[in-house]
């Protein structure tokens, strides 16, 4: 796709300084800019590159005042980073603007769907599935019975959505994600054998949720496993049965959340965090990578370590821990002198 600087400025409500007819067909970093590419300058650390970049067009903040000569055409906007992100979103929408039903697919006669559906080859859509408008389902996707999918949803290749799952509007489900598999529910009998507890609930995904590649979200034993609106999950995360994650919480890769735990709103959880089941984590909580959470967490706590401590206490303790060999040597020397 080819756009002129003038067209881009129109999309971003920006002002062109330079050649409004110059065309770009790809994106680049400012330090790696080439002729025909579009880049941006938001971080002052990279200002020097604007005088040497070969990018044809560069998005900058309105208050940018050049101190040297430059060759790139500028588009001045209120917020360069936000505008570039908006342009990336626009680019992806234009690039992925697929419509139509490929062949072969299996689509039950009881499926209902809205306008502008894209259904990729080798997909399976079960009975009584409801699909909204502008939905894109890429090849090799499985969608079980009684699933509901809202408007403007993208399900990438190879994702599996089990029966009874409900997905809201503007959601993205990446490749290999599995929504609605059975929770890990087993109970020992009097012979010491583990017998499966039927998992009869479902998964509910509210609006504006992203689910990363290879992430698994288990159905509830009873009731629902719920991701509230605006939740963002990275790749390879495990969300167990009956977990509830509050609005606009983000979780990084390889984190595991055990069954029936409730996580609040606007939390930030780092990679490889382990969270036990049946606890409550408050709102605006921050958990550093590789922490282990084994207790209830109050609003606004910042935690690190395993088992996790208050972030400030952890850093103080770590100072002592890393100096422990020196401290032991000092104690040994003092004991020798006392003898």
Top keywords for this entry?
12-stranded mixed beta sheet; single chain; 4 helices; Udp-n-acetylmuramoylalanyl-d-glutamate--2,6- Diaminopimelate Ligase, Chain: A, domain 1; 339 residues; UDP N-Acetylglucosamine Acyltransferase, domain 1; Trimer_LpxA-like_sf; 10-stranded parallel beta sheet; transferase; acyltransferase; lipid a biosynthesis; alpha/beta; UDP-3-O-acylglucosamine N-acyltransferase
Q: How do the helices and strands line up, and which of them pair or pack?
A:
Elements: E1 3-4, H1 5-12, E2 15-17, E3 23-24, E4 26-27, E5 37-40, E6 57-61, E7 73-77, H2 80-95, E8 100-101, E9 106-107, E10 112-113, E11 118-119, E12 124-125, E13 130-131, E14 136-137, E15 142-143, E16 148-149, E17 154-155, E18 160-161, E19 166-167, E20 172-173, E21 178-181, E22 186-188, E23 194-196, E24 202-205, E25 210-211, E26 216-218, E27 224-227, E28 232-233, E29 238-239, E30 244-245, E31 250-251, E32 256-257, E33 262-263, E34 268-269, E35 274-275, E36 280-281, E37 286-287, E38 292-293, E39 302-305, E40 308-310, H3 311-322, H4 324-338
Parallel strand pairs: 4-5, 5-6, 6-7, 8-11, 9-12, 10-13, 11-14, 12-15, 13-16, 14-17, 15-18, 16-19, 17-20, 18-21, 19-24, 20-25, 21-26, 24-27, 25-28, 26-29, 27-30, 28-31, 29-32, 30-33, 31-34, 32-35, 33-36, 34-37, 35-38, 37-39
Antiparallel strand pairs: 1-3, 2-7, 22-23, 39-40
Care to describe what's here?
By secondary structure, this protein is of the alpha/beta class. The chain folds into two domains: 93 residues, Udp-n-acetylmuramoylalanyl-d-glutamate--2,6- Diaminopimelate Ligase, Chain: A, domain 1 (3-Layer(aba) Sandwich); 215 residues, 3 Solenoid (UDP N-Acetylglucosamine Acyltransferase, domain 1). It is built from four helices and 40 strands. The protein has a twelve-stranded mixed β-sheet. The protein has a ten-stranded parallel β-sheet with strand order 9-12-15-18-21-26-29-32-35-38, with no helix packed on it. The longest helix is centred in the first third of the chain and has 16 residues.
């Amino acid at each position: 796709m080819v756009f002129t600087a003038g067209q881009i400025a129109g999309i971003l409500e920006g002002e062109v300084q330079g050649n409004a007819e110059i065309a770009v067909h790809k994106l680049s970093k400012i330090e790696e800019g080439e002729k025909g590419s579009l880049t941006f300058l938001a971080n002052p650390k990279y200002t020097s590159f604007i005088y040497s970049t070969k990018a044809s067009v560069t998005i900058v903040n309105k208050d940018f005042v050049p101190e040297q000569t430059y060759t790139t055409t500028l588009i001045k906007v209120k917020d360069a980073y936000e505008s570039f992100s908006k342009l990336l979103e626009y680019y992806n929408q234009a690039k992925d603007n697929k419509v139509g039903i490929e062949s072969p697919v299996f689509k039950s006669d009881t499926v209902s769907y809205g306008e502008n559906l894209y259904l990729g080859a080798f997909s399976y859509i079960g009975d009584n599935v409801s699909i909204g408008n502008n939905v894109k389902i890429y090849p090799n996707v499985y969608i079980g019975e009684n699933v509901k999918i809202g408007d403007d949803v993208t399900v990438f290749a190879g994702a599996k959505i089990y029966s009874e799952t409900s997905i809201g509007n503007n959601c993205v489900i990446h490749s290999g994600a599995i929504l609605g598999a059975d929770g890990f529910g087993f109970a020992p009998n009097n012979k010491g054998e583990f017998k499966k507890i039927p998992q009869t609930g479902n998964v509910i995904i509210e609006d504006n949720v992203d689910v990363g590649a290879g992430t698994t979200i288990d159905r509830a034993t009873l009731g629902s496993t719920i991701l509230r609106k605006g939740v963002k999950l990275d790749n390879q995360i495990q969300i167990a049965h009956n977990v509830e994650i509050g609005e606009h919480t983000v979780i990084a890769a390889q984190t595991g959340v055990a069954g029936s735990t409730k996580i609040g709103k606007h939390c930030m959880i780092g990679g490889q965090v382990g969270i036990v089941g049946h606890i409550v984590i408050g709102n605006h909580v921050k958990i550093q990578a590789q922490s282990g959470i084994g207790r209830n967490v109050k609003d606004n706590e910042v935690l690190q370590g395993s088992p996790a401590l208050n972030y400030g206490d952890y850093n103080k303790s770590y100072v002592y821990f890393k100096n422990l060999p020196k401290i032991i040597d000092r104690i040994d020397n003092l004991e020798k002198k006392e003898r």
